């Protein structure tokens, strides 16, 4: 359990730093996106029936970077909650002077699974919305659709954790990956359908680049679940791997996208001729004073891609290490079943009692 506690402590620390950095470098100039409802109007003339659409803005303009900052804050709080739970459980077992085993960890795993599921129901969808808002406005129906699909995906993962049989679990995996595919295709198409002028064509590459890694990281969560299921990975190891993957994916995606935001504004403002034109553009003038403004984000983005890749590689290696991380099946050696007979003279009847000894699962020491 100690390893899981340390992972959560590190995750809470990293996401807290990420939250502080993203909030401190936010800007009112990023508040440019609308969430709107689309309505339709039908008109009849003497010669034709026409249909026109009308977009109605809902609420104030959205700051896509604030969505990322809030997502990091929720993630940090979720890991902090996990730390409190694990510290409490750790003190209880220390007081009882006993060690964890498979059965003892089941209760903690149930809490960890519920915490993780509730966290992902919110944060996994928020990142998707932020991805789209960084590129364009969104309809309210798009946001609702993304959240519902994401909640459905997380619930399927929650159900799969309670192993039943290969047929029903296989169907659940199929449903889960179909829901995930729906989200990924939807978000990828919404976030990449952006046209730039010829001088800014490279900006579309950055958006597509971020979207590709978004797909890779999100698919990896489903693949990790499948890997742990097939190899019957210990629940404590599975929980640790999800913390590692979550931190790697969220930090990488968040800062790749933040890099896209500042790089995009830098290139847009740089396309304006310096001098009077640049000075008259208040937005570019203000953003140029931001510490994150500038062309040096490619190195940062590559760094986070490497971090994310290392996280994925670590989870893959641990998931494939069935020798150390899989639940060992009970072994019944020939001499493990011993029959002892106790004979008592009770009215000439002979009573036999069977005593069966089973090999216990190896205790897990955390």
How would you sum up this structure in a few lines?
The chain has helices at residues 2-24, 64-95, 102-133, 140-161, 166-192, 201-230, 235-270, 276-280, 282-287, 297-320, 322-325; strands at 31-33, 35-44, 49-57, 62-63, 138-139, 337-340, 353-356.
Mean pLDDT equals 79
CATH topology, by name, is: Rhopdopsin 7-helix transmembrane proteins
What is the share of helical residues? 55-70%
Number of helices: 11
Question: How much β-strand is present in the residues?
Answer: 5-15%
| Gyration radius, rounded | 27 Å
Choose one word for the global shape: globular
E-strand count: 7
- How far from one another are the termini? 5 Å
CATH architecture classification: Up-down Bundle
Structure description:
- By secondary structure, the chain is mainly α.
- The chain is 66% helix and 9% strand.
- It contains eleven helices and seven strands.
- The chain has helices spanning 2-24, 64-95, 102-133, 140-161, 166-192, 201-230, 235-270, 276-280, 282-287, 297-320, 322-325, and strands at residues 31-33, 35-44, 49-57, 62-63, 138-139, 337-340, 353-356.
- The strands form three sheets. A three-stranded mixed β-sheet has the order 3-2-5.
- The N and C termini lie close together (5 Å).
Relevant terms:
three-stranded mixed beta sheet, disordered C terminus, 366 residues, mainly alpha, single chain, 11 helices, two-stranded antiparallel ribbon, Rhopdopsin 7-helix transmembrane proteins
